[in-house]
Amino acid sequence: MRGRFITLEGGEGAGKSTQARRLADALAAQGLPVLRTREPGGAPGAEAVRDVLLGAGPWDGVAECMLHFAARREHVARSITPALAAGIWVVCDRFADSTLAYQCFGQGVPRAVWDGLAEIALDGLRPDLTLVLDLAPEEGLARAAARGETNRYERMGLGFHARVRDGFRAIAAAEPARCTVLDATDTPEGVAAAILATVRSRLSPS
Length: 206
Ligand code: TYD
Fold this sequence. Notes:
Blueprint: E1 5-10, H1 16-29, E2 34-38, H2 44-55, H3 61-85, E3 89-93, H4 96-106, H5 111-122, E4 129-134, H6 137-146, H7 158-174, E5 179-183, H8 188-203
Parallel strand pairs: 1-3, 1-4, 2-3, 4-5
Helix pairs in contact: 1-8, 2-3, 3-4, 3-5, 4-7
The structure holds thymidine-5'-diphosphate.
């Protein structure tokens, strides 16, 4: 049986990486085969593109979208699709919704660019479930800054990050069957419990 594809999305400092780890561990503890991965990255070529995206800039917005989708194509073709076909559950820290929120809502790239690139790069692949960790950008950026070194996106300013948050909320509102918005101000334990409850009710892992 095909595995399930779960993505975690949200702004900076929302705790996606921690929650991806917890969810992957919880599913594995149930005896399910699990691949935990992330974007940009998740395959050798995609990790190389990640270094370019997080380091150098500024980019033309369309070029930046193309780089994210080039990395994503590698990730999908080499890691995600083969894993799902082998019955492995994939837990992914960011996916295509991040490009829509950051590049389109945040940076003003037209939606049609995203639509075209998604059509070319994804072969129809869509997450079975997307967990959006929602947090005020002021708090998220403070959490990210407290972690130490910041990347290029984290330095983009409050207005940008407010548009990104609005973007994720709009994406979730437009696709309620796929997306759930969770309050990321809760404790890590509380968020993890909410995620597991959502996964159990929506995907019923055995
Ligand atoms: P990362 O250090 O993984 O940040 P986070 O812990 O917040 O996920 O860096 C990824 C950065 O790349 C993050 O700031 C969001 C940005 N990004 C985009 O702008 N577009 C995308 O499509 C993706 C996948 C990430």
